[in-house]
From TrEMBL:
GO terms for cellular component: cytosol. InterPro entries: Adenosylhomocyst_ase-like_sf, Adenosylhomocysteinase-like, Ado_hCys_hydrolase_NAD-bd, NAD(P)-bd_dom_sf, S-Ado-L-homoCys_hydrolase_CS. Belongs to the adenosylhomocysteinase family. It is an enzyme of class 3 (hydrolase). The gene is ahcY. It comes from Caldicellulosiruptor saccharolyticus (strain ATCC 43494 / DSM 8903 / Tp8T 6331). Pathway: Amino-acid biosynthesis; L-homocysteine biosynthesis; L-homocysteine from S-adenosyl-L-homocysteine: step 1/1. It is found in: Cytoplasm. This is Adenosylhomocysteinase.
Length: 414
């Protein structure tokens, strides 16, 4: 039995899903290529990904390929209740409600996994976590799965390193057609969409501090620069810090950037990146937000304990009056600002990422008996399929190597 907020919302949700479908030609190509084969026929698949229209199209594709699909969210504030209702209308079981408490959120994850699940599609590693802890008894039935994001892969690699990973997982985030486009262009655009629609302030001329210069941080910094901001990057990796410098950004420690920044955006996958000691140094009116998977990058817990006043400044903006008399503002409770305060990545970007998810899910279903309990990279042929399908949808043709060129590139002789 599904757990959603209100089934009556399904019509609006279906409109959103159909709109997104118009801009997801790669998923449609996969549907055409595999619909007769039905490679997931009869397999129970659990999806824990930010529950909005693009994710719904992934779920519906897997259903068309024969899977029995069970869907939950991967963050309480990124679930869209009308999308959940629409999926239920399309005969997919959903366990997710926007704004769920942490206890409710994990209950929804558990209910999803209690459906004789064989394959998982995870975003952040919460399904994997439960299958290695509270619901460990269910892990023996898991063929394997896919992980969408950097944070989840960090958790998977830690399990693999300790020899505790119980089934094979594909690191979808590491695919070229994922991190080069989703993390950089998707996060870059959607983060600023969330910030601007939530605050309604000008970005041009402001000092923007971006914590972390991985592919997500690069996208956020580039988009801020394009909007006219003066961008500062903070990093712990010397190579990434040097890269940010060479890309034309100021690089400094957070304790120094805290005194300068007007808007702070975290995208590291680590905890306590912006600590209370940093917040005390910030300007009156500084704005803080996060684009990392979990709401741990800004130390909200200490901020709430130390603030002398907490108030709603505007929808999705919490104001904190500090002991020094300054006010700082946190967007979307420190959760992913691009999803909790906007609609997430652009549709065309997620078409690529979810195409990789779908193809990797098929790959695991067909090859799990030959896979060890480890983290695998996305097979190169899947990356190539998605890239070629994307180019085709754009009407772009590229050159191909001649046999003579192939021979030249694979020979040591001149």
């Amino acid at each position: 039995m599904a757990i959603i907020k209100d089934y009556c919302l399904w019509e609006e949700g279906l409109r959103k899903i159909l709109w997104a479908k118009r801009f997801m030609p790669i998923l449609e190509q996969i549907r055409k290529d595999y619909i007769n084969e039905k490679p997931l026929n009869g397999i129970n698949v659990a999806i824990s990904v930010h529950l909005e229209a693009k994710t719904a199209n992934l779920a519906l594709l897997l259903k068309d390929l024969g899977a029995n699909v069970y869907v939950t969210g991967s963050n309480p504030l990124s679930t869209q209740d009308d999308i959940a209702a629409a999926l239920v209308h399309e005969d997919i079981e959903v366990f997710a409600i926007r704004g769920a408490t942490e206890e409710e959120y994990f209950y929804h994850l558990e209910k999803t996994l209690e459906n004789d699940i064989r394959l998982i599609i995870d975003d952040g590693g919460d399904l994997t976590y439960l299958l290695h802890t509270k619901l460990e008894n269910l892990s023996d039935k898991i063929m394997g799965g896919c992980e969408e994001t950097t944070t989840g892969i960090i958790r998977l690699k830690a399990l693999e390193k300790d020899g505790k990973l119980k089934f094979p997982m594909i690191a979808v985030n590491n695919a070229y057609c994922k991190h080069l486009f989703d993390n950089r262009y998707g996060t870059g655009q959607s983060t600023w969409d969330g910030i601007m629609r939530t605050t309604n302030i000008t970005v041009a001329g402001k000092h923007v501090v971006v914590a972390g210069y991985g592919f997500c941080g690069k996208g956020i910094a580039k988009r801020a620069q394009g909007l006219g901001a003066k961008v500062i990057v903070t990093e712990v990796d010397p190579i990434k810090a040097l890269e940010a410098y060479m890309d034309g950004f100021e690089v400094m420690k957070m304790e120094d950037a805290a005194k300068i920044g007007d808007i702070f955006v975290t995208a590291t996958g680590c905890k306590d990146v912006v600590r209370y000691e940093h917040i005390l140094e910030m300007k009156d009116g500084a704005i803080l937000c996060n684009s990392g998977h979990f709401n741990v990058e800004i130390d909200i817990e200490t901020l709430e304990k130390k603030a002398i006043k907490i108030y709603e400044a505007r929808k999705n903006i919490t104001g904190y009056k500090l002991e020094n008399g300054k006010d700082v503002f946190v967007l979307a409770e420190g959760r992913l600002v691009n999803l909790a305060a906007a609609d997430g990545h652009p549709i065309e970007i997620m078409d690529m990422s979810f195409a990789i998810q779908a193809l990797c899910t098929i790959y695991v279903a067909q090859n799990y008996k030959n896979l060890d309990k480890k983290v695998y990279q996305v097979p190169s042929e899947i990356d190539s399929y998605v890239a070629m399908a994307k180019l085709k949808s754009l009407g772009i043709e590229i050159d191909r190597l001649t046999n003579e060129q192939k021979k030249y590139l694979n020979s040591w002789e001149v």
